[in-house]
Specification:
single chain, alpha/beta, Rossmann fold, OB fold (Dihydrolipoamide Acetyltransferase, E2P), 2 domains
Length: 245
């Protein structure tokens, strides 16, 4: 099957150069070109390609915003092609297949295409049944440009803070640019539980479940923190009481 490819760049000469490289690449088919971020989002939604060569800075929105505007489970392979080196870390954070720094030559372009081919082969393979995830023995988070390695028992609770989450640790705190849903998935359910929309707690940190007014409950942690137990998560109560994980 040909690799259906969309070129997204606000510079006509850059699009022409990529088009020439792709024309000489066996198995690649250019299905369109876009000169702005919003135009790219519309084109990808209308006719999803297999591969997008994506510039980083463009009119309307940048390359990262283009990705954010696409359904996460249906994203094409992304190769950023840009003159800006400083966005490389952000690009790989959103699972880009490769990052081409302009001006790149044909050899570097071909290397990116090999990576794309490997990526597409893996993504088209039938997924094996997922085994239950074991409890993580350490959790890696990115805070202030650092990679911090934490043991689950070091985390007392997680608190939502606008577009960030706050990790309350046994000693100290860390602010992360991450969603509650993402951190909940990474923490798993072996040692942690969601008690309300804005809080996740380590089960070993729960000291008491106290009745509150109108049939509600409050979760009391060992450090004295009190958290309301969401009615929608009331089914967690038995788990807190029995300690089943």
């Amino acid at each position: 099957m040909p690799i259906r490819t969309l070129i997204v760049d606000d510079e006509p000469l850059a699009r022409e150069r990529l088009r020439g490289f792709l024309k000489a690449e066996p198995g690649a088919e250019v299905i369109g070109e876009c000169g702005s971020g919003p135009e790219a989002i519309a084109a990808i939604r209308r006719d999803p390609p297999d591969l997008v060569f994506l510039d980083m800075q463009m009119p309307g929105c940048d390359g990262l915003q283009v990705l954010a505007g696409l359904p996460e489970g249906r994203r094409p392979a992304i190769v950023f092609a840009t003159a800006y080196e400083r966005f490389a870390v952000d690009a790989f954070d959103v699972a880009a297949v490769d990052y081409l720094l302009k001006p790149f030559d044909r050899e570097r372009f071909q290397q990116a295409m090999r990576r794309v081919q490997d990526f597409l082969v893996r993504s088209r393979e039938p997924a094996a049944p997922a085994a239950p995830a074991p409890a993580a023995d350490r959790i890696t988070v990115k805070a202030d440009g650092r990679l911090v390695f934490l043991k689950p028992e070091e985390i007392v609770r997680v608190e939502a803070a606008d577009n960030y989450v706050m990790l309350h640790l046994v000693s100290g705190r860390l602010m992360l640019r991450e969603t509650m849903a993402a951190i909940e998935t990474r923490l798993g359910t072996a040692s942690f539980a969601r008690v309300n929309r804005s809080a996740i707690v380590h089960l070993d940190q729960i000291k008491e479940i106290q009745p509150a007014q109108h049939g509600d409950y409050t979760v009391l942690l060992r450090d004295g923190t009190q958290l309301p137990l969401s009615r929608s998560l009331r089914g967690q109560l038995d788990r807190f009481i029995t300690g089943k994980r």
